[in-house]
Amino acid sequence: MSNVLEIVDSLQSKLENLLTKYELLKIENQQLLEKSENLVQEVRKGKESINAIESKYESLKVANAMVGSKEDKHSTKLKINTLIREIDKCILQLSE
């Protein structure tokens, strides 16, 4: 009988240890999920920042091209012509 009680006590002790570890792992998992969400938000903000900077860079390239050499002016004219064609397509689609 004493042997059975020892086994039961041992099982109870192990079960309590497992439950404690489970709770700790649950808390750690929640913290890691929150950290992951924060990192995803940081990455999203970084991508938005990169896109904004790239847009400003393109604008600066166009502005510098207008002031710069003939090669830059040629590429700017080509870009403007492309934009005009796109605008014309949009106007045509709206008029249909």
From TrEMBL:
<keyword id="KW-0175">Coiled coil</keyword>
<feature type="coiled-coil region">
    <location>
        <begin position="1"/>
        <end position="42"/>
    </location>
</feature>
<protein>
    <recommendedName>
        <fullName>Cell division protein ZapB</fullName>
    </recommendedName>
</protein>
